[in-house]
Amino acid sequence: MAEITNKHVLTIGTGKKLYVDLAVNLARSFLHWHTNSSILFQLVTDQPELIPEDLNDKIQVINVKPGELGLGFSTKLHLDKLVSEGQTFFVDSDCLIFEPLDGLFERFKGHDVSVAGNYATEGEWFGDIRSICNKFNIPHLPQFNGGLYYLEKGDKATEVYTTARQLEKQYDEIGFVRLRDRPNDEVLMALALQLHGQTPVIDDGTIMSDPQACRGGYKLDVISGERWMINPDPPHPLHQSWYRFHKVSPAIVHFLGHYTQHYPYKKEVYRLRKSANRQLNILSELKALFIIQYPEQVKNSFKNLFRPVYHLLFGNRKIKRSERVIQ
Questions:
Q1: Please, what is the angle between helix 185-195 and helix 129-136, to 10°?
Q2: Residue 25 · residue 52 · CB < 8 Å
Q3: Could you tell me which residues come within 8 angstroms of residue 196 by beta carbon, excluding any fewer than 6 positions away?
Q4: Which DSSP state fits 4?
Q5: What is the pTM (predicted TM-score) of this model?
Q6: First-to-last CA distance in the chain?
Q7: How far apart are alpha carbons 158 and 169 in whole angstroms?
Q8: Residues 6+ away with beta carbon under 8 Å from 85
Q9: pLDDT, averaged across the chain
Q10: What is the mean pLDDT of residues 162-188?
């Protein structure tokens, strides 16, 4: 068993096997960048039998009962019950880590509960921000990517999360909009953080980002740590006006939604697995290119080329139901 320390990276892999597999991939990326580190990786799961044996002596597995933490995004409203003494970063299982996280622990140190984000006073974010602020008599809401939460175990963290769980019962009444038919933890935590005077660490593009915010393309190499992501400038059609950065190199990349099905993620997961087994070499690198990356690039090129013809002949295809949707 890995040595217990006062710094932790925690993730949750419960419910579908998909989430355990994602959590294992995140663990591998953490271990790649934290050889002989005092930071402990913790994986919360209701299916410990799915965790590869080679990880057993390198991470701490925390067992929970099926459904014990709720369903969907609600599991993240119970982090105060899961964290150990000291500092903890919760990281969503569909993330990969691209550098040592020691510096992030220093940046967040002293916050009872925090996120990487900024403040929003108006606009739409799973509900009308101004309307919700007026309802609770607050000036603004922290706005952030819920793939990352920071906690220091204590009474204040318990108070924040207790409030978030209470607010979840009023989700629709408050005016929040559901995500995949479930309450979204981000807005509940944003409101709970503000009500308890907790502040975000201002996002500067170096902490966490995702392909949805940076639709202009991205290059990722989890082994070397090289990475960049682009949000194209306006009037480019892929520009995301709500994201204030142009080019970022985040420590953590969040492959939210369907992006875990794209080759950049699948390729890096393959390389991490090979590296963990000391099998990453010229042959495996070529396989990653010719078996994973190039076929998908060719497939996407043909789709983009012939999509107008397909739509003309057959109309729009029915959108597939996400495998992440809770049944």
A1: 40
A2: no
A3: 113, 156, 159, 160, 163
A4: P
A5: 0.91
A6: 35
A7: 17
A8: 6, 153
A9: 92
A10: 94
pLDDT score for 1? 42
Q: Residues with Cβ < 8 Å from 134, sequence gap 6 or more?
A: none
Is the pLDDT confidence value at 285 over 80?
yes
For tokens 């290119």, what's the residue? Answer: 289
Band (307; pLDDT cuts 50, 70, 90): low
Query: DSSP state, 128?
Result: B
- pLDDT at residue 27 greater than cutoff 70: yes
Sequence-ordered list of residues with C-beta below 8 angstroms from that of 255, at least 6 positions apart, any chain: 94, 95, 96, 210, 211, 262, 265
β-sheet bridge partners, residue 180: none
Band of residue 317 on the pLDDT scale cut at 50, 70, 90: low
High-pLDDT (> 90) share of the chain, %:
83
Question: In whole angstroms, what is the distance from residue 299 CA to residue 302 CA?
Answer: 5
Q: Are 199 and 150 in contact (CB under 8 A)?
A: no
DSSP for 173-194? HHTPPPBTTB--HHHHHHHHHH
Please tell me what DSSP assigns to residue 37: -
Q: Mention every residue, 6+ apart, whose C-beta is less than 8 A from residue 66.
A: 14, 15, 46
Determine contact, residues 68/62, Cβ cutoff 8 Å.
Answer: no
